[in-house]
């Protein structure tokens, strides 16, 4: 039997063994999902308002069993000693209204990510996830005013639009400082419009394994 060249050709054991020996197998890889949901992405050149003393919740839908490995964000404007606390919650659903309409449960408080250096930042944390609605949460302390985080850009408005401004909602926010530790469940949080000047939603990118 000669070297196979057509889809209908057979192959000898020697040919198959030689092909397999040339393959290089690596360990388990990581699936990086750059966006929490289709239609939500980092705004090109968009910097969030400082959002001092505000906690944000960004919608996240998990469609299969997986494990969260990290949450990523970007700092376009640094501030010494600044940080955000990041976490992930499960939710009964993602309401296009006040978040109190959903029951939320903290799954993991990943700790804090520094805003003291400009560029991409990654905060590692391991949490098994099951299919359904979830929330990525960022809590910004009241003490900082200069630091900026790349904000969310909306191309598909899952949560609808602000009827007065026709600006899409990105998620929810509350003027409460949870930067010292995230609560076991989230309080009532109001819908937040894209590019809000009263603290814009920071973009959070989940990484899964």
Task: From the structure above, extract its key features.
209 residues; four-stranded antiparallel β-sheet; six-stranded antiparallel β-sheet; 12 strands; elongated; 4% helix; 41% strand; mainly beta
Give the termini distance in whole angstroms: 43 Å
Count of DSSP-assigned helices: 1
Oligomeric state of the chains in view: single chain
Shape: elongated
Low-pLDDT stretches are: 24-32
User: What does the main sheet amount to?
Assistant: 6 strands, antiparallel
Instruction: State the share of residues found in helices, binned by percent.
Output: under 10%
Helix/strand-derived category reads mainly beta
- Estimated share of beta-strand residues: 35-45%
Helix-strand topology string: HEEEEEEEEEEEE
Rg computed from alpha carbons, rounded to a whole number of angstroms: 22 Å
Mean pLDDT: 83
Strand order of the largest sheet: 6-5-8-3-10-11
Number of strands: 12
